[in-house]
Design a protein that fits this description.
By secondary structure, the chain is mainly beta. Helices cover 4% and strands 46% of the residues. The protein contains 1 helix and 12 strands; from the N terminus they run ββββαββββββββ. Strand 9 and strand 10 form a beta hairpin. The longest helix is centred in the first third of the chain and has 7 residues.
Length: 190
């Protein structure tokens, strides 16, 4: 019979929807529904767990709308660490536009309902990695390839597509020489 012991408490200003670890490093990522800096990365190799100061990350859309909007926000909807060792320092987050939890009648305006964002941060350099290709639609799942620096995003349909297409899956490949993830294939789902 094994028992668990509480080692630390990390307060957040909103509901925490994601807590992620990786077998490749001692970092923990959390994703919470707050208007700005909803993504935190804690490095467990840095001393007292209760005193850790996390690195904060936020999508550009989340930041842009955080200060001027009270009824809805861009919140993390999916989140994954890179699966293979060569991608393990990448944190991939898909945002979706959602009504604010603390507002009784919060709603997302019609023209913003499918305006989420896909972001990748290099947690070694602490910088966002550029994504070439469609990245500004609501994301509901992201998955890394198990042995390559490649990911798939599942999003609401956007761009030039048949009106019956509801979902699009996009394959993104990392181009190390230019530090960019490029969309190389789109699959449309009815």
């Amino acid at each position: 019979n094994q028992s668990m012991k509480l080692l630390a408490t990390w307060p957040h200003k909103g509901p925490v929807n994601f807590v992620l670890t990786s077998p490749h490093h001692n970092k923990v990522a959390t994703g919470s529904d707050v208007p700005r800096d909803g993504i935190r990365v804690y490095n467990l190799d840095r001393g007292d767990l209760n005193e850790l100061i996390p690195r904060m990350y936020s999508g550009t859309r989340a930041n842009d709308y955080a200060s001027r909007n009270l009824k809805w926000a861009y919140d993390p909807a999916t989140m994954q660490w890179g699966a293979c060792e060569s991608a393990s320092h990448f944190l991939l987050v898909g945002y979706s536009a959602r009504p604010a939890l603390e507002v009784d009648h919060g709603h997302v305006p019609e023209d913003k309902r499918n305006s989420g964002q896909i972001c990748v941060w290099d947690t070694q350099t602490r910088k966002e990695v550029h994504i070439a290709g469609p990245k500004t639609q609501n994301a509901f799942e992201v998955v890394w390839h198990p042995s390559q620096v490649v990911f798939v995003s599942a999003t609401a349909a956007t761009g030039d597509h048949d009106e019956n297409v509801k979902t699009q899956l996009r394959l993104f490949v990392y181009k190390d020489s230019i530090n960019v993830f490029s969309a190389v294939k789109t699959f449309e789902c009815y």
